[in-house]
Design a protein that fits this description.
Blueprint lengths: L1 H15 L3 H20 L4 H4 L2 H11 L4 H14 L16 H6 L4 H14 L3 H21 L8 H12 L4 H21 L4
InterPro entries: CB, Integrase_recombinase_N, Integrase_SAM-like_N
Protein name: Core-binding (CB) domain-containing protein
Keywords: DNA integration, DNA-binding
Length: 191
């Protein structure tokens, strides 16, 4: 049963738009979990017990193993395959706050529009939400509204936001902003 759940999870990750290297890491750890469970004859009902998972993490000694296991268990729980008590899975660092933070209505409407027109996964929505949240914070700090945006403001925002990011991340940031600005211009006639 575990091998089938791992395959389903990796397929879900692929459909959700996870990066290939992230999927490779998850695949490696989860296949090692499968080997560990088979080698130690651990029954399905004990596979996700705290002591089993701790023994597995001690066995593999991979820094990110706990992260992979939490993601896998969250997936299984959300799909009704395993039952976990409330609070059993801590949220990932930083993610939960950003995912739950409500942006102003116009931003949320854009995210809805973006999701429907682009058919993107939750990872891409997460990235765009982060960019829009940073833009919203920037505009509030500058005392500006969206209708006041111009090229100089966007350049200043991107210079501030992207100074610590790798070139690939900068490309994603600019792409997310371009889509939002296009929406404001074409769909909402705000810019």
């Amino acid at each position: 049963m575990l091998d089938r759940q791992i395959q389903d999870y990796l397929e879900w990750m692929n459909n959700a738009g996870y990066a290939p290297w992230t999927m490779a890491q998850h695949s490696q750890i989860l296949n090692r979990l499968l080997d560990f469970v088979v080698l130690n004859s651990i029954p399905w009902e004990r596979t996700f017990a705290r002591d089993t998972l701790q023994a597995f993490k001690d066995h593999v000694q991979v820094k990110y193993a706990g992260f992979v296991l939490r993601g896998f268990m969250r997936y299984l729980h959300q799909n009704g395959i395993i039952c976990l008590p409330p609070g059993a899975l801590p949220e990932g660092r930083g993610r939960s706050k950003l995912q739950r933070a409500q942006l102003p209505r116009l931003y949320e409407e854009y995210l809805q529009f973006y999701t429907q027109t682009r058919q993107v996964g939750h990872v891409q929505i997460y990235r765009v939400r982060g960019t829009l949240s940073a833009l919203n914070d920037y505009l509030q700090n500058q005392g500006m509204e969206l209708k006041d945006l111009d090229v100089l403001h966007m350049d200043a925002f991107l210079a501030e936001r992207n100074r610590k990011y790798a070139p690939e991340t900068r490309i994603h940031e600019r792409s997310g902003l371009r889509g939002f600005l296009r929406y404001l211009y074409l769909e909402r006639q705000i810019l």
